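Loading example: each entry is read as four labelled lines plus one structure line.
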Amino acid sequence: MSDALLTVKNLTVDFHTARGTVHAVRNVSWSVSRGETLAILGESGSGKSVSASAVMNLLDIPPAEIVSGEILYEGKDLLKVSPEEHRALNGKKIAMIFQDPLGHLNPVYSVGWQIIEMMTAHGRPKDLARKRALELIARVGIPEPEKAMKKYPHQFSGGQRQRLMIAMALMLKPDILIADEPTTALDVTIQAEVLALLKELQAETGMAMVLITHDLGVVAEIADRVVVMNKGVIVETGTPREVYHAPKHPYTQRLISAAPGKGEIKLLDETSPVLLRVEKLQKTYGNFDALKGVSFNLTRGQSLAVVGESGSGKSTLARTLLRLEDADSGHAYWKDKDLITIGQRELLTVRREIQMVFQDPTQSLNPRMSVYDLIAEGWDIHKLMPNKAERRKRVIELLEQVGLAAEHVDRYPHQFSGGQRQRIAIARALALEPELIICDEAVSALDVSIQAQVVALLDGLRQRLGISFIFIAHDLGVVRDFADTVIVMKSGEIVEMGPTEQIFDAPREPYTQRLLAANLDPDPDVQAERRAALTDA
Amino acid sequence: MAEVISGPQSTVADKGPSLLSMLWRDKLAFSSAIILLVIIVAALIGPTLLGDIATQQNLRGRNFPPFSLDRGWAFFLGGDSLGRSMLARLIVAAHSTILIALGTVAVALTIGATLGLVAGYAGKHVSQIIMRLADVIMSFPSLLIAVVVLYVLGPSIPNMILVLAITRIPIYLRTTRAEVLEVRERMFVQAAKVMGATHTRIILKHILPVVTPTLVTIATLDFAFVMLAESSLSFLGIGVQPPGITWGLMVSQGRPYLNTAWWLAFWPGLMIVLTALSLNLLSSWMRVALDPAQRWRLETKRKKNV
Amino acid sequence: MNLKPIFFGALMATTSIVPALAQANTDITVVLSEELDLVEPCMATRSNIGRVIMQNISETLTELDVRGDKGLTGRLAESWEDLGDGTWQFKLRQNVKFSDGSDFDANDVKHSFGRVFSDQITCESKRYFADTQLTLDVVDPHTINIKAEPAQPILPLLMSLVTIVPSETPVEFVREPIGTGPYAMTDWTAGQQIVLERRDDYWGELPAVTKATYVFRSEPAVRAAMVETGEADIAPQITELEATNPETDFTYPNSETVYLRIDQTVEPMGDIRVRKALNAAIDREAFIGTVLAEGTELATAMTPPTTLGWNPDLKPHAFDPEQAKAWLAEAEADGVNVKAPVEVIARTENFPHVAEVGEALVQMLNDVGFNASLRMVEVAEHEQYYSKPYPEGRPAQLVVAQHDNSRGDPVFSMYFKYHSQGTQSGVNDPKADELIEAATAATGEERAARWSELFAYVHDEIVADALLFHMVGHSRVGERLDFKPTIATNQQLQLSEIGFK
Amino acid sequence: MIKMIGQRAIASILSLLVLMVLVFFLSRLTGDPAVLFLPIDATEQMKEEFRRLHGLDLPIIQQFWHYIVDLTQLDFGDSLRKARPALDVVLEAYAWTLPLALITMSLVVVAAIVLGSLAAFNVGGFFDRLVSIISLIGASAPDFWIAIVAIVVFSIGLGWVPTSGVGTPWHWILPIAVLFIRPFGLVVQVVRGSMLSALSSLYVKTARAKGVKNTRLIFVHTLRNGMLPVITVIGDQAAAMLNGAVIVETIFGFPGIGKLMIDSILQRDFNVVLAAIMITALAIFVMNILIDIAYSVLDPRIRN
């Protein structure tokens, strides 16, 4: 790879923490050439971002320490240049965009100011910067660039913010663009658009791109080459096709097999009795109609998925059913009781029968309560199981049921990984022996391999305990693996509802079709076919 | 970015080292704890042990200079303007000083936090009423409260506490409310709601523990403030008065002697500063030590576990 | 309500006023302990006001000489004589002009008194005429007859307490006092300063000081420091702790007497042995040169030695703890509850080191077997305990109080403190009442003798209270001034007495 | 925004009324101004006259009614001691307190922000510890102690500045310096904490990736975010200062509102106390609105 623009060689970085030294990456080497897209694939904790942070001099030293290695750019070792020299390269020659552009854009300055600063920080005149900013804002597809310049980050949608970040990164026509999980927080349709934009821009400028992601689909869609990382080391390198079709390393194999959307589609048991009957549920926030008359039925043991993009009303649906919000009108009959109108006393009973698992277990578990307290809290509330010893036994049983161990009982949430925390949340939901569990994006925050495990766990519970699920998700792959019925929502309305098989194989509504088309497949060949199909059409 | 994986497999011990050994490791916090401990012990047993020495006057041997053992250890820090042992008086004064400061902070914290929890959790109207009430208290000068209370109820330690506490309530009230407004939107509060937790339970079990560290921090800062406020009231002649004895009063009584016998005001002033400093250092340590998610920072270095 | 001009005005003022240091060498700055609420002539007997205006702006008919021994001399009155029947005739000084240019005559005197006695204004000097009815009769522009009912033997002395204002002065507090004195007020910036400037048309000898600026600082250390740094020339009230420089610092009796007021109606204070024991328990000498300044004298009377009728034969009660214990034991044997709780009540900031004095007193009392405790109270509360009606259900109370009489005659003290009807009296003794009434009505030598007798009676016979100290004041006077503070400096500070070296 | 200010104004006027009623009745519990105004030997007749002249002999409800009626014409009554309109007395004192508070708070804000930010950037370092310890000691040392030591050292010993008074700008140096210490100690801690969390924000990473210089990173990118919590504390401190700095004013002979307030309270000059409290409350109310405006200027997210 003699024409490499940027080369990372044998990079080893340690993090010194109070708990000891952690090898963040060991002997990592990769390079990227002009016009090429390199994907660094890995799950959380794999060290996939560390080398890129080292390139940008974004590692905090200490606690980080660069033990060995070099980063070569234009014949210079970036690890040896002065901070001032490095600063001059940042943004100008090597630019970076991040996941979650809301957090990465300064909330108190207008986006125009921030984009212009990219050039003024490197000594370019302000009027020139302004002109270029207007051009680029228009180029990345933001309407009314003049007005947009004056607006603040919170006034844009997630997709728009990422476009603005891209515009900012491209201000000085960098040689290399590093994109750290650029589409992770975005809806599938927006993700597809942003990736397409990146590809176009790369074609225009010939820049090299380093894309850090956990998503096989993104790799399949955009990468020329991919390195797979696990626990700080590179386990596999190759083209996306090679890696996908013939993974050599066991970790890569596991990762690929865990990718959702490949399993057998479940069928609905038509004979089950109806448990929940939702009729014309309506909810308005100010001028915004979150729910415009939603109706559906749920039977015992059913796993009903509700899919849709952000703002579709799927979370509001869950919140109104749980009475976290009051619906404006409509009914939801749960065993002949209307959830929307029942009084506090009856509601208490229902609150035992319907449980919820939230998206982010880090936030939904009180950080100051031990696992035992968290799981046993429901019993305190409903005055069940007064016997301490019995309680403890049951907590351990529940932990084992969700794949944790008895020794975990007295620990605190922060001592667990994300997947384990979600298991605790599930154990907490199970503690009250509910008949319905509502999962609001319950697996979205988890790594693919963990996601698969949790979905399998939920499915097992459904089969063994006959619990019904309302499964709210935006990831169609997971939905396909878990649900037997799918509701597609858009702007507070049900667009389409039907058995999973029908929705995925023969979607009737154009919106469902678009949604499915935008969903990235981990198989590069499938993605290539779809792209070909799109260009044909 | 590699995270420090803190999964169970990497955690060696369940509970980690004891609080005490963690304290030992932070030398600053440890010395603070020792100083506070000494002060508390002095406050508890000082009056019974040294009450007589502290009041033993000697008009003809007044303002005895410090750092001399000619008159025994009791006069090592010098004698005051009535010839009493400074050391003994400092120790005895710790009692009322700590009592007033602790009482004030406890009363203000309890009332302020309770109102704050209600204001933050209850509806808009209740909240508004409570907040405006806080405004009224804030604008009500503490000096007037002091004069009213002392004139109507008479000077005594409980009344001093009352005076000082009233003026501190808004601080706790506003902080608590602000925190509650944020915490009550957190996911785990929603989770508790979904499980059917009552409002009381949510407030006490879920919101209060999260708000507590902030309150503790403010309380420790306030401790020093209260000691100084009490001193200022003494200075203005409406605080604790002789024969009562507090550090604040000692500072204010020693004030005329700053030129001639500096030690009269210096030692009690130093005690106030030392107490405040120790409390601050200890409280920032405690903030970390009592937070399960941060406690590891204070634990021993472990072998790497990735 | 527009704050803006005031605010900017203040800012301007701070940048434009020339430093106080740069002034003509016959201008002086006086630093006082508290700001004046009022600069009203009829309030001149209040010491903080009197210090500025008494005999500087406003003058009185007569004046008590405290520097020499001339006794009562004329100021605006040239002479006076007793016409009998309670009537005194005063001949007024001629060719005297007020600072507003008008002439001084008998009508001004009449108006001044009318103003003091008006019920539309609360004038302080009125209190000296408590039960006396005055009738003023203008004989001619420079002669006035004043008739007192009942007859007032010391009427000429009382004339030294009423300041004379022009007859045009309204019957309400004025902010720009007009007087006949050698100075006129030219500036009063509330909170900051009062400026007096010398009048060239003054009737008497022109004083040396051309301009006096009064500023106010409550902290004694700061006042002393200001003279030291040259920011001020006279600090009339500093504490003995600051008065360390013999070149500039003067110590002088300030006419204040500190005593313990005993309320004899509450057990155990009704018993004379207990009161004697109390007096014997106090080691008065021990205070002097320690918590109280050197120069402080032991008191045997309510009024300082310069007062008429002061009795030189009286000796302070000896400090004798053993005797005190013996007296207490004796009283106890007779069934007096000497262990009854006794509250020593003192007022914060009453005089320097009052708290220490209180603490030491309590210790001394307890050393001989009293059950005493100290209570420091704020001024309004002190007043409740000090003046009648005393609170119901009170325990025995010893009120630490300070009394000021620089007026030369005990009449301003004795009735209030020892007569059974006196507002601050703890005594109910028919003989004392009789002696007071007799002395008040007497004149000349007899008056002095009567007062002497009374002093001896209350001190030795009934041991009415525990008289403690005649206090001293301390002033710091800049080195360029030729001025020696006297007993009167507490009440008035005549600029005409100040010279330059 | 305007609507919000309007609501705040109404709420504040209500608070002001409650405050007035409380102060009016509570202050009258503290004794009789007549005995304090008149000498100790004054006759009962003189005291009665004084009470009558100032309407203090009327039933308290009637006194209150008169007060309210006068107040509607912005007449706060006369000072019992000074025989002048209470409002004049208070405004005069304010003319001193306001610049003192403004100058001191400005210095506190600037110094605390610069030193606090640098300490946060250098967290755990020598400078950080130095700032922390000094500010903590400063915040917990008795102020009258500091004031007198300052006079002894800087006026008497070194002769750099006048001891006290308000004549020239030089006179302001010591009072401001002494008044500065405690709020500085508090604010610098808050700035440090707030900047610490702001510096770990994600947008700082973006700025570094852009190649922004460190000083710009601290004082442009982070500071504006870090200021939000700081403003609340600054507001509290400024409010305290608007109540007057009793101790500093007393010692330095500074004719501000704090000294006026304590004197009036001790002398039971009710009208001045009431006027002072209401004007102060009004000033604090105006300041609170300014703080809200500052919030929305600093943070565009609050504007809608």
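Chain D touches chain C through 58 residues (CB under 8 Å).
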